[in-house]
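[job 0412] stage=complex_fold ligand=zinc ion status=START
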Amino acid sequence: MHAAVTRLPAEPLRLDRLIRASVIHSLTGQVYRCVGLYGDRIAAVSTDPHGLDDLAGAGTVMVDAAGLTLLPAFSDSHEHLLEASRNTLLVPVDQAHSIAEFTAMISAAARDSAPTAWIVTSMGWHESNLAENRLPTGAELDAAAPGHPVLARRGGHLAIASAAALEAAGVGPGTPDPPGGKFERLPDGRPNGVLESGAVYQVAASAPAPSAAELAGAVGSRSGEYASLGVGTIREAMVTLDDLLAYQQAWRDGLLNVRVRPLIRIGNELSTADAIALIRGLGTWSGFGDDWLRIWGLKFVMDGGVEGGALEQPYANDPADSGHLNWDPAVMTEVCTAAVQRGWRIGTHAAGDRAVRTLLDVYEGVVAKTGSLPPWTLVIEHALLSDPAQRERAVRGGFGLTVQHSQLWNMGSEMLVTWGPERTRQVNPLDEWLAAGASLAAGTDIARPFNPMTNVWGMATRGTKSAGIQGPEHAIDVPTALRLYTMGSAALNGEAHRAGSITPGKLADLVAYPIDPLTADLDDLADLRPALTVVGGRTTHDPGKRLAQ
Ligand SMILES: [Zn+2]
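[job 0412] stage=complex_fold status=DONE, emitting structure tokens
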């Protein structure tokens, strides 16, 4: 049989680039030897290394990728590129290894700023990376930067505020806890500076924000770091309307090195009427934009994370605590129904199994009012914990799920302490979700550049950063993990027809590796880095200058 050539019908076609590689996995089951690019698209593929030679002209750049394996570029289903970018403008305490280093960085930042200026840290740190393995205290932050309000945000759900920061935000002994949030307090009722969920947003609202231009510049350079790890698309899991302006500026100025699919936050601090008015006032709907920047939908947050996640059974380290729910289900059902009726998709953070069950109640309530909805209209983000009945309900309702093994990889040790070993090994059982027939899309939710191949290795081994192997029975194979991370996310983004595989007519989003990840030893994947990345035919990573001609 002669070599199969598949190409766009447009004639005459002269390729911009013709890439010959050792292996080209379409991830639809085809293996090719060369791929031709035209404009931002994959124009043709062939199983013969010379099968596309007659489509090359004088202007065609011939790329010799001998020894490399090409895959579709990764599409992260849930990541916080804007936070990762904003963090580059903040105090880099994610690089501290002890409380002393942490506070020294704050002192240095205070010395470089005006006398009473806010000092705000990067969110990408965790106390497990500090020698003391504890949070810094509000008092330590006050001592590090006397007179400066200091806010040390850790991830999306927790922060430490200095006394000056609490004062600047108008928070005192008489301040009530906000809806879905908590000020930790001393025995006399004064807040001690530890803020949870809604309390984080309340204090952070008083800190000055970087300008849209500064953020756009940071997004540009940060997105280049993601591209250097093989990422082509990021579904940006939570933005404010100001953040959206920064993305538009980055888009207008051609700064984006990855495609972005943002979710706009709808906060539970709003009344039902205000939430619906906000959604109505957006004046747009899901899918608006172009291939580089397209609005995915709206974001709701049902519970906390490893701390604060709403569980069916109490925490392992605190029998009195089983987490918290942010939304009243009836209110959220009403708001979500109004949103869906206006053309919005919805993604809701639900970490614990009680949050997942409550969210299923909400989503089923929406569908009862709207009638059946297209796939990936109502999405569950994370479902770190779930039970078989919940998985069955999600599949029956057509509610897709974004999954992030990198959470278990990163937070496994904390899960062991707060949730206990039994629940930790049951985190994100991808094999059981798939066996139940679920639609899954893989991503990271790490808020910093993270090697997707480490995540693929983790899905295939259940390996973690510092908690060993957790629940090896839930591992999935590498081709499946790669498909969830490419075609799965493309389907989530409503782009299954134009992204996610190496297929003529689809966007030319490619990544190349020096070994074939589908046949390599699993252990060789954990630190495997790409040789090049292409997004929309544009080179976004090419340290070996293979594409530069
Ligand atoms: Zn997230």
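The chain is about 30% helix and 20% strand.
[job 0412] exit 0
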